[in-house]
């Protein structure tokens, strides 16, 4: 599954990073960086929690 970030909605609050640090990172410039473009094995629950926890609804999954 591909991780999609709507850059127009993302405010780089870092909630996703706190819930799935192996997948999401807010860099020194305050930009969200995907460490993986697809959901890594064993991290689907973490990624789904990050998506659900995103207050701006900037994250989603695509098959």
Average of pLDDT: 97
Biggest sheet record: 2 strands, antiparallel
- N→C terminal distance: 5 Å
Shape: globular
Spatial strand arrangement across the major sheet: 1-4
Structural descriptors:
63 residues; alpha+beta; two-stranded antiparallel ribbon; 22% strand; globular
Give an account of the 3D structure:
- The structure is a single chain.
- This protein has 63 residues and is α+β, with helices and mostly antiparallel strands.
- Helices cover 24% and strands 22% of the residues.
- The protein is built from two helices and four strands, in the order βαββαβ.
- The chain has helices at residues 15-19, 44-53; strands spanning 2-5, 24-26, 32-34, 59-62.
- The strands form two sheets. The protein has a two-stranded antiparallel ribbon with strand order 1-4. It has a two-stranded antiparallel sheet with strand order 2-3.
- Strand 2 (24-26) and strand 3 form a beta hairpin.
- It is globular and about 30 Å long.
- The N and C termini lie close together (5 Å).
- The mean pLDDT is 97.
């Amino acid at each position: 599954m591909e991780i999609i970030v709507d850059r127009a909605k993302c405010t780089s609050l870092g909630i996703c990073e706190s819930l799935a640090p192996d997948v999401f990172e807010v860099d020194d410039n305050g930009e969200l960086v995907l460490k993986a473009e697809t959901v890594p094995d064993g991290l689907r629950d973490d990624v789904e929690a990050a998506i659900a926890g995103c207050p701006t609804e900037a994250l989603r999954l695509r098959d």
